[in-house]
From TrEMBL:
This is Putative 2-isopropylmalate synthase. The keyword Acyltransferase applies. GO terms for cellular component: chloroplast. It holds the Pfam family HMGL-like. One of its GO terms (biological process) is L-leucine biosynthetic process.
Amino acid sequence: RSDREFLYEILGVVIEAGATTVNIADTVGIVMPLELGKLIVDIKDNTPGIANVIISTHCHNDLGLATANTIEVEEYSGMHLQPHKPLVGANAFVHASGIHQVSRILYMLCVAI
């Protein structure tokens, strides 16, 4: 939902200022898995200094896609995943919304190997 060019620019600025980790968040839980994977690829291709930092993601589960989004990002980048217990970080705008469960992600990664 953010302007891509602005996103690349602001990420470059924080990296230049000394950031060692940048986090790409879907705090409203509406991004689709392929869309998030492409965003990560685009960030890696268009952000100065991105190769020198850790890219992290944070996905909410409003549409039930947080686990799929997390797996997609891992597939595209092998980057840092933020595991959380069920329902931690509930979204105030959607009842019972939570963040992906680490056990499901680990299981999916093991099955895929």
